Amino acid sequence: MKQPQENSPLCFAKIIGQDKAKKLLQRAVAQGRLSHAFLFKGPMGVGKKTLTRTFAAALNCHKPEGDEPCGQCPSCRKFRSGSHPDFIVIEPDGATIKINQVRELKKALAFPPFEAKLRVALLCDIHTMRREAANSLLKILEEPPDQTMLILTGDEAGVILPTILSRCQTVPFFPLPQAEVAKILTLEAGIEMENAATLAAMAEGSLGRARLLLAKDLLGLRREIVETLLHLEPDTPAAIQALGELAESAAKLKEDLGELLELLTTWLHDLLLFGHGAAGSIINHDLSPTFPAACRRWSGSQLSERLQLLDTARKQLARNCNPTAVCEVLFFGLL
Fold first, then answer.
1. Dihedrals φ, ψ of 245, to 5°?
2. Angstrom distance (rounded) from CA 265 to CA 285
3. For 198-254, how does the pLDDT look when each residue is reduced to its tens digit (9 = 90+)?
4. Looking at the structure, do residues 18 and 159 belong to the same domain, yes or no?
5. For 164-177, what is each residue's pLDDT tens digit?
6. Using the 8-state DSSP alphabet, how is residue 5 labeled?
7. For the chain, how many structural domains are there in total?
8. d(CA 174, CA 43)
9. Does the structure show a pLDDT above 60 at 5?
10. Together in a domain, 238 and 308
11. Which of 154, 192, 292, 316 could bond 127 through an S-S bridge, CB–CB 3.0 to 4.6 Å?
12. 3-state secondary structure of 192
């Protein structure tokens, strides 16, 4: 369990987008009508954790300003610094939330809050939970501890047990406006608006994902892979060496490798759109000069086969296959 490290202000009004979620939670604060468990469900990187922290701060603020936390009282300062003892955060250990993490949470919740009026436990990405961990969590939801609220976050496409869904009040989250994401990226990172717009489109309205793509330079690695595939011939010494090196670079991404595979998937989708005369719908604008050569090299059916290879690679990684070996097979197949 750990505390979040956030620097954004504790203020509903300053959180970008998610108007429906904010109104629901602000009304809950104002009226004091609270569920013992909420499920914040939607894409990654659109503000679920930030809104959770603000909600928790508002519920425990000593001098609330309407439905907003004051941001200055001792409780708010602890929430801002990530040091509040009654704000518990559990994130996946590796790829999943494991049962020992839920057991640790149970032990922590067996005692009263240290100082908060209402302790808040945030469990992130519960769609990653193994079944035994989910069943253990279910027992907490069925018999919630006093003075405790559970907030779960989950991906809209992830699988969450119906028994967990039925015991939570679901709060929907949605992709952020891409123009807003691009604007924030230009202010934060000082990048050009065109590059920021490409990142925002790639991230599909997820600010968190756009920041990840920028920080890890995943677009740069994606470009290197694409250009290498276009300039190499199969079954040559140069191809074996270059693709082996790229596989090692990709494998070093570890938990972010899935994001790279998703970028390569969008590139192949763009090639199919370009080949069918729908260039106006493409996302990889910075790679558009490579599209004519790529479409001459691979037919539509060959592009579809390569999409299947990417899907297979994702499934292999989910089964904990060796990342370097998975990437080597994938890149040689893409060639």
1. -65, -40
2. 14
3. 888 888 889 988 998 888 888 889 999 999 999 988 888 888 999 999 999 999 998
4. yes
5. 999 999 999 999 98
6. -
7. 3
8. 7
9. no
10. yes
11. 154
12. coil
Are both 22 and 118 inside the same structural domain? yes
Residue 239 token pair: 């191809």
In a domain, 2, yes or no: no
Integer angstrom CA distances of residue 194 from 90, 180, 223, 266, 284? 36, 13, 16, 18, 11
What whole-number distance in Å separates Cα of residue 53 and Cα of residue 87? 8
Same domain, 131 and 209: no
Do 92 and 123 fall into the same domain? yes
In whole angstroms, how large is the CA radius of gyration of the chain? 23
- Banded pLDDT at 6 (limits 50, 70, 90): very low
7: in domain: no
Final residue of a structural domain among 192, 215, 238:
215
- What is the tens place of the pLDDT at every residue in 299-311? 999 999 999 999 9
Q: Which residues contact 7 (CB under 8 A, 6 or more apart)?
A: none
Range of the domain at 103: 12-172
Q: Do the Cβ atoms of 86 and 60 come closer than 8 Å?
A: yes
For residues 257 and 250, the answer to whether their CB atoms sit within 8 Å is yes
